[in-house]
Amino acid sequence: SFKHKVFFEVAQQLSFTKASQTLFISQPAISKHIRLLEEEYKTSLFERKGNSITLTEEGAILFDFIIRGQELEKQLELELNTFREPSQIKGDLRLGASTTVALYIVPPVLSGFRKKYPDVKISLFNRNSESVLMALKSKEIDLGIVEGRSKIGQVKSQHFLTDEVVPVCSTRSSLAKNPRLDIKDVSSVQVALRERGSGT
DNA sequence: CGCCTTGGTCTTGGTTGGTC
DNA sequence: GACCAACCAAGACCAAGGCG
Fold this sequence. Notes:
By secondary structure, this protein is of the alpha/beta class. It folds into two domains: 2-67, Arc Repressor Mutant, subunit A; 92-200, 3-Layer(aba) Sandwich (D-Maltodextrin-Binding Protein, domain 2), CATH 3.40.190.10. It is 46% helix and 12% strand. It contains eight helices and five strands; from the N terminus they run αααββαβααβαβα. It has helices at residues 2-13, 16-23, 27-41, 57-81, 99-104, 106-116, 129-137, 183-187, and strands at 46-49, 52-55, 91-97, 120-126, 143-145. The chain has a three-stranded parallel sheet with strand order 4-3-5. α1 crosses α2, α1 (2-13) packs across α3 (27-41) and α2 (16-23) packs across α3. The longest helix is centred in the middle third of the chain and has 25 residues, at 57-81. The radius of gyration is 24 Å and the shape is elongated. The protein binds a DNA duplex through α3.
């Protein structure tokens, strides 16, 4: 129900006021919905301490059940989609992509995908490989495209395509004279790398 | 007789203004 | 920043009446 939607928003933001702003209703309306829910379940859902609020144990349980409910709803949508033509398929796809992938791989893939599935809403989460994997684990995204092999469990992965990483250096560098370099030759010099967590 | 239409009531989801 | 009181509007529900 809408009351649950309000509760979910407040629990996420941990603020009545912020929830009222994201839901585009007034703050008293938020209070009212939460109070009605608390009366309905005969328990308090938030701990009000002065200026801030926290979830009570009961509130945390409700929050968890709402998330499970949302997952069920999503499964239902998926299940029903198997009966539909691609052009009729509806849903949300939250796609994560690492920096390089988002820049070079995703655009043509997405444009083809949108042609085939016009009613699927796509949101793109764009961070480095490690953050994308974390987002996948915490279910912020449904699918991630990253570089390298994932070392994290609980994630199913599949080879998508092969890319090549090429080191470059100044022509004045001593390395430039050597036609065949070993990884050991590089370890002794200063190298510009991507940040920690980058697949590259 | 079965099928609308109508009018009243209840519920739900809102608001404003003021208080703690 | 949260809550309360008073009030408003839309929609659901339901009983009663009109009509082919």
